Amino acid sequence: PYATGLVVVAATQHSSRMADETVSGRNEANGTSPTDLGIGMEANEEKSEELAESEVTEMTPPAAPQSDEEKNTETVRRTVMEGLQATLAFLRNRWVLLLVLGTLGVGYALLGSLATAFDGLSWKAWFSLACVTVLVGCLAIGLLPSHVLFAITLGILIAFQCVSPPDSLIGFSNVGVATVAILFMVANGVTRTNALGIMFRYFMGNKRISLRLALFKIVTPLGLASGFLNNTPIFAMAIPVILRWCRTVQYAPSKLLMPINNALILGGTITLIGTSTNLIVSGLAESDTSLVDKDGNQLSFGIFGITKLGIIYFGIGVIYVVIFAPFDALLPERQTYDSQIAEHAKEYMVSMKVSSKAKTVINQTIETAGLRHLRGLFLVEIQRGPSIIPAPAPDDRIEEGDILVFSGQIDTVVDLYKRDAGLVPIQTDGEEPILSPRFTHSLYEVVVSPNSLLLNGRRIRDVGFRQQFGAAVVAVASSSGSLIMNQKLGDIELHGGDTLLVEAGPRFYRRWGRNPNFALVYPLKDSSPPRDDWPHIIVSLTIAAAMVAIAAAEVTGIYTTAIVAALAMLLTGCQNIRESGAAIDIPVMLTIALAFGVGKSIETTGAGAAIANFIVWWLKPLGAIGVLFAIYVVVAILTSVITNNGAVAIMFPIVSGILKDGTVSNLDPYSAMYVLMLAGSASFSTPIGYQTNLMAHSAGAYQFSDWVRFGLGLQIVLMVVGVVGAFYLY
User: Fold this and answer.
1) How many CA atoms lie within 13 A of 22 on its CB side?
2) From CA 18, how far away is CA 24, in angstroms rounded?
3) Spatial contact of 242 and 278, defined as CB atoms under 8 Å apart
């Protein structure tokens, strides 16, 4: 614990220094002076004091030079003082976390001394508990990225032999983890054809509606779909569409992503195939031949056996998220990384032509097309033939052939570029269009070098950007920060420091990234427009539906069908190899795989079983319903810190033992197994319990405390609903 504290203090001190250097560098880069910061008088006083001190110094004789020993002593003293200051600052800022960790430490000590369930527990089990406790604490304060913290924790557990090397790598050879990675690629195939975007616009539109209505319209169909589909690809497909819709209607993504994630998890409890947790519990129960029901028959689970309980569980959960998500005290608005940098982003002028393929805007008003309330983007004018409509009104209609002139920030310009393949950027007059399909293009930010003889002082049309670099200039941002108005794109004169937004193929960066005409070439991630044509939309949806149907019919496993679906997406042109590989979220995959190893240490050292035995023993006198509550509480706690599958695997032999013991009257085996299934999916109060939690945590820029505040109440409500429902329905 002392060593862990030193690591935390050192990391905090390093982060503080980096933050100070970053702020100092920004002030220097922006030319910020003390006077600009409102402290001019204090700065003048300091200068006066410095002048006075210099006069005194000139009058006094110079001090004798310090010896090497004195210098070393002074260095040591300064280092010790800095360490003490950093320690005090850490204690002052993190006293709540330290209090919780200290309380848990005392609790562990009391359990080891007083509870018989912990008798004979090895030091490795206690050390594993301590490591997981510190891991959760570090995740709570966001000390390092999640996958880095899991890697460090797993490395420590391996070094102290709390988990064997083969067991530590079990997540990397797990079929479920590999399936998640492949499903990312399948989901990207559907997303690249814009199928989900069209469906989402059909349900949600582009208008701003009340948050509760928006949540209800999203979580209900997606939650029901997750009863039959794997929720991970559903969420992977939904996230970019939801983020784009949030930017359009100016909602914080944090108000939607966690509730939607919770609804998808709840939807998985409606059927036996809705989640892998249900399948694992049913498989373990059916393979245990000595586990029988009240009539002496071996347990058997149908696909809809859990439905009468699961649909109630899902309905109550949806009501909770719809009612309580709008309350900022429970679920605050968080700025994503894009929205944080947008406050300081440069503005572009970009013109988009409405072609015949622009399905979402032709014959629509500005309001209904969703072009009025775009965050960071303003529709300056509409050019219609020889006439111009300045500052269009919300009820002005858009016609085919119109040119829409926008002023805005880069992230919203990219969204506009991607939202509809029928909105085509207006490029330089007289240049031939790029022959390759638009969906193979991406956007790049290019900064003109002050030393460029080819670009400096020349108009864009005179440079011949297409012939010289194989790219088309889409928009320009002036280095002076002023908007370039009332000029055709080809007539704009370039100067050093101007930023160009160019459309080019995938080889542009590799070929021109180090060209001396450019001070910087920066590829914009995920900026390719969708392959927005009906044949590919139908093909991608057919492939995804066939994958799920074949897996549900148990013709073959989801891993095999996912591989076939991913290959089909490539062969039919729904995505290319580069896009398929880029779709895999490496940090999320590492976190999931490493979490298996950490959970394995809790399982193999006996720590998880000891905690489970203690809680069940404590609530056993309350009868059958008390034991059901105990099962739910233990599994919900375990699934919050390790994987859901690991939690039910640890708890199943304990539940099975209680059922076989027969000392608890009126405890139906099906009630216990269904509670085990529900609790295994109840990962609502931490971001590390389930892979979709991690996806939502990153995309919504949540803090650890957000999950606790919003998810803890949901946990309590659903615990009562699940346990009471299972007790009376089975």
Assistant:
1) 6
2) 10
3) no
By C-alpha distance, which of 580, 688, 545 is closest to 234? 545
Q: Give percent above pLDDT 90 in the chain.
A: 5
pLDDT at 314: 92
Distance separating alpha carbons of residues 372 and 616, to the nearest angstrom: 57
SS3 state of residue 557: coil
Give dist(CA 354, CA 61) in Å, integer.
80
Predicted local confidence at residue 435, as pLDDT: 45
d(CA 266, CA 223): 7
Residues 691 and 126 sit within 8 Å (Cβ to Cβ): no
Contact partners, residue 565, CB within 8 Å, separation at least 6 = 186, 189, 543, 544, 546, 547
CA gap 474, 389 in Å, rounded = 21
Render pLDDT for 232-263 as a digit per residue (tens, 0 to 9): 767 766 776 787 777 777 788 888 888 988 89
CA distance 324 to 326: 6
Which one, of 683, 587, 608, lies nearest residue 650 by Cα? Answer: 608
Give kind and range of the element (H or E) at residue 155.
helix 146-159
DSSP letter (8 states) at residue 539: H
Confirm if 330 and 259 have CB atoms less than 8 A apart.
no
User: 415, 247 in Cβ contact below 8 A?
Assistant: yes
Residues 404 and 420 sit within 8 Å (Cβ to Cβ): no
Please report the sign of the dihedral spanned by the C-alpha atoms of residue 284, residue 289, residue 290, residue 295. Answer: positive
**Other CB atoms within 10 A of residue 61 CB:** 6
Q: How far is CA 661 from CA 279, 290, 565, 664, 730, in A?
A: 25, 11, 46, 8, 20
DSSP-derived letter for residue 254 is G
DSSP helix/strand/coil, 478: coil
Q: Give the pLDDT score at 7.
A: 36
